[in-house]
Design goal:
about 230 residues, alpha/beta, 8-stranded mixed β-sheet, globular, disordered N terminus
Length: about 230
Amino acid sequence: MASIAKAEVHDENRLQVMFDLINEGKELDCQELAGKYDLWTNYEKELGNQKYKGPLYVSTILAEVIKSKDISVLDCASGTGLVAEALIAKGFTNITGLDISEEFIKVAEKKGIYKKIVRAFIGTDRMPFDDNEFDAIVCCSGILPTHISPDAFREWVRILKPGGFFSFSIRRCYLEVMQGEEVFYSKPFADKIDEVLQDLEQNNKVEILPRRECPEYIENSPAYFYVIKVL
């Protein structure tokens, strides 16, 4: 597989397990998905080995589009807090985490980097936040097949203040056929991204800013970063 460095697949290679799950396209309920991540005890080590640059890119983008560092930020699919650490390095301090994995949340809580962390599934259901609660939402490596559906964008619009932004990453191989990563391409998923964003734009809910590319998002695999302004 060209998307990650070659490695022996064993019980500790949870990154490969998650890639295989995405390849299969099997839909899991929220508890099953949470269980997969709860077992990923070496999450940060594996991503570090793959030179994961997502948190750096998304924090840099947010710092460019929003100058105030006192804003309220929701980190969706917050994991063990890698994105929050990058946001703090850029000067942001008021960060709420949201993740499905109880074990990941425990790791993040020990770091003391979030104002609070909420355990909930991000999908089509109403999220546990008030209307217009946040100034910005970031989601790094959460929008992908078998994980967070693009339908969640509608909820993000609800909980963001007018003039707020949401930014999320998607590896290019999920949206288009990439050499060496053909198994990851999902036309239904790519079409759903376009469908939801176009609907929000046509109904004057959002403004879609130019999409950006991260050539080395994870080793040998590029990604797109979307930046959306709520109207």
